[in-house]
Specification:
The chain is an all-alpha fold and 152 residues long. The chain has helices at 3-41, 57-63, 79-94, 114-130. It contains 4 helices and no strands. It is elongated.
């Protein structure tokens, strides 16, 4: 490979990386707006935190009716994946969406479709945030009271 070919290859790689970063930033902003709208529907305090990394987890936890202390589970490898799935199911239920959408998480472990899964979640979150058909259900985790057990 001569110097001219190396320069062309370097330029192509650089252009690809710049476009990848621009797409990543655009996706982050779009997801921020989607979660801002979801947090607004859920009437949680400080929905603008949706745009701040890590801080966006506080209104997320409030939306799914969990203590913000649960964020600490994200520090532990493997456990963080399990809790992310559980929390996503709770988010889907909170907005009256089918919890089977959480099956998309399977795609995260398949390298060939990983990017498509990220895009699918982005589209799903945008639908949940921007659609007037999707409403927040504050009683999504309500369980009916159990009848008292008969003592003999």
């Amino acid at each position: 490979m001569n110097h001219a070919d190396a320069g062309i290859l370097g330029g192509m790689i650089g252009t690809f990386l710049v476009l990848w970063v621009i797409l990543g930033i655009a996706a982050w902003i779009l997801q921020g707006f989607a979660f801002y709208k979801m947090y607004t529907k859920a009437n949680v305090w400080s929905p603008w935190l949706a745009f701040i990394p890590i801080a966006n987890l506080w209104p997320f936890m409030w939306t799914i009716k969990k203590s913000a202390w649960n964020i600490l589970w994200l520090i532990i490898p493997i456990v963080n994946l399990v809790f992310s799935i559980i929390w996503t199911i709770r988010l889907l239920k909170a907005f009256n969406m089918n919890p089977l959408w959480a099956l998309l998480f399977i795609g995260y472990v398949i390298p060939a479709i990983n990017s498509f899964v990220v895009l699918a979640f982005l589209v799903l979150y945008c639908y949940m945030g921007f659609s007037s058909n999707v409403r927040y259900n504050p009683d999504f985790d309500w369980k009916p009271p159990q009848p008292p057990s008969a003592s003999v």
